[in-house]
Amino acid sequence: MKTWLHSWRAALRIARRDAWRAKGRSFLVLAMIALPIMGVSAADLTLRSAELSTTEKMARQLGAADAVLSDPSMGGVPILQDPAGDMYDTVENFENKPWPDGKGDVTKGLPAGAKTLTDTVGRAKVNTEHGLMNTEVRELKTADPMAKGIAALEKGRFPERAEEVAATTSFLKKSGLSVGDKLTMRNFDREYRIVGAYELPSALKTDQVNALPGALLGPLNKALEKADLPESHLDTTYLVAVKGGFTWNMVKEANAKGVLVESRQVAMDPPARSDVPYYKKSPYASYESSRGADAAALAAIATVVGLALLEICLLAGPAFAVGARRSRRQLGLVGANGGARSHIRAIVLAGGLVIGAAAAVVGTVAGTILAVLLQPVLEGQMGERFGSFDVRPLELLGIALLAVFTGTMAALVPAVTASRQSVLTSLTGRRGVRKTGRVLPVLGLIGVALGTAVALAGSLLFDSFAIVGLGAGVAELGVVALTPALVGLFGRLGRFLPLSPRLALRDAVRNRGRTAPAVAAVLAAVAGTVAVATYTASSDAQQRARYTPTMPSGVIAVVDEENPRDVPAIRDAAHRGFPVDVRADLSRIAVGKDRCTQYGGEDGCGRYEIVVPKANQCPLHATGPNNEDPASKFTVAERRKLAKDWRCDLGNGSFYGTDVVVADEKLLTVLGIKDEATVKALKEGRVVSFEKQNIDSAGKLALRIITDSKAADKAYEAGKEPPGEIKSFAVHQAPESVNSYGITTVLPPSAVSAAGLKAVPFGTYFSTDRLPTSKEEQGVDDALSKIGTDIALHIEKGYESEANIVLLALAVFAGLITIGAAGIATGLAQADAEADLKTLSAVGAPPRVRRTLSGFQCGVVSTMGVVLGSAAGVLPAIGLLLTERRDEMKWYQQALDSGYSPGPEPYIPLVLPWGTLGALIIAVPLGAALLAALLTRSRGALARREAS
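and the corresponding structure tokens:
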């Protein structure tokens, strides 16, 4: 034991001295190991710090209160809830009854003697330096001690009088306002003074204005009602302080009165699952991931981590081999003085241990500093303040030990290789010739076969992405094991090459011990890149095929359904800013007030609906009494047949949700509809329909005008026809080949007037000579923001792919790995071939031979790696795509069995990213070769070559 300790102590001293002498090589290996350790350490500290404790969560949500009570909008019926208050359900079963809806009385859930603080949230259109901003308004006495912790004051103070407000820093930044400025709102004549700036720790990007209870939202809604404008919807909760805390029994008592509760005491000490009635009623409430899914996820994570460690070992291993090769005389002297092979192995392994330990210290310290520096940036990106800086020593120690393990494993193969050399070979500098063993290629073949089988089984039998990833990882390890044998096969190409590349290829094949790890490192990186790139390109092709345009290419739509009075100004602003060819103004039918939308449900508002003739109604959609599912009356075969019936085709719908519009023939021009009969019919004042199921046998279309929406809803729930006046129109049915882009019916203005209906403007379609530029689009956006805040602007640009950026990033990543690995192998080759280069110089070879040989050595390694990696990377992509296709087909068949028409069969293509492959196979090796040639000196140091 004592002898072993002394030998390792000496080995560590020698390794430390060698590492200090070869600073460049040591720094390279240290950086390769420390960089991922730094990233993992920073990620661990960041995730732990971002994870709020229960105390921190409660302080941000409840302030200093004991609970917050809210209305679940179920009409006050008794409810059940989970301890966190995130999920709830009614006590009574409403399966065959109308679901409860409406406001409840939250004050009924307040315990006796409780102190309360109201918290009301609404929205308002606030005037800013740039126009209008639709902003959240919160009426909460933020200065009250009970609200401490909900908002963090940054500047000034919280409001204390009715005419004062505070605002979030995000709102002030976007609006151009500042503390001390006046705040006004649209259609509201009151002014408020901004007296403070604050932030919401869990919602930094929220634009919010804070006022005292009753100071802003109530008067604002009265002004909006007077101006016949939509009022702000108000949501009021109650912060509650109770002596002794808000217990679980109090929560259940409040639930019995229809009130939802989030309690601090319950969150800190939740009840047992058996004591929660909600879990007993709701079967999905206690859903947890299965052990199989957890095991698959852990296996996938372990595979990724293992491959990353393998990549580091493959990159760092040749660097340790360089050190062992250059220290071979020193190692030979150790053997000549009685040192055993174990001592030589210990010296080389100690080099990995020393650098791994240094990388652990540097990586964890740098990771901690990086986490501290990035915290404000990440908080801004995430829109949430972190909790306390959470350092967990055991986790950081495990990460540091991972660095030590990686460094030691990277030095393992060079250590074994160095220990096998004879003392005489080490002292004389000769290189023995060793044949490649047969065991490793056999294991590689087994790994490739086994991994391929597992990946295919995961995609064809189990539909598991995790199993596919595991199989792909095993197959990649098999290819890595096969690399020495594959490098030997590449050597047969040397006879067809000129002198310098032939020498480079011969040198790479003869010295597989240093070539194979570098090639394997390139292979692993390129294989992963090609796999992700192939999957990305295939998914991009799939999304392109699925893309359904909402309008013809280049057409612009601008819509505001809630404020018809603003539409003329909106139309003019868009017309001035865009290169308009044809303008088609759209209106909609309004039942009730002008601002009534089709499905808004406001008081005094109705709606209309197309009456589909019974003969044309889809049997799968005709809901019967008690909301019975009509599909249950049919067999699976009948449902599959009906799913493809023309009566059950639901269409795509328009992008703004209104499929019946009032317009003239210009709309048809903008939509590219050139059918002469359709254009003529609309000009003559006839309604044009694009869905034949809406037309009865007499060739007419019927609209039901519903003035009482609540009575109509009750009739539907009872399975009866809703009350309403029927308006009939003479209709022209457009050919089925015409694409109306989601619009089902176009009513001419004359037909609407003749029927006694009211049409209000809501938008415009513009066809353009060309696509608008970014400058034009920004200009119109700015102009529209000064008119209103609920304006929808859409420009149909066709399918816009984001895959090109991903593919470029992948190619750059793989290129850097390839150049790094090839550079390490080239450095090792130069160290080995120094004697050969001296011989070439002695026999009259020109100085450029050194450069060209270095370049071709780097190019050979990178070429072999990218070719093998490109071939190996296609397998996991195929497995993932096959798995996705099975999932899509399963969903498609289930939809048909249920009677739902899912559209065309799933299209899952296999698309090879030829651009990325071309860059990897041609550009990257060529660039690596040129870089190596440029960085290599033409002349070496003058020296004599000793005779062997």
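(Above: one complete record from the training split.) The chain is about 50% helix and 15% strand.
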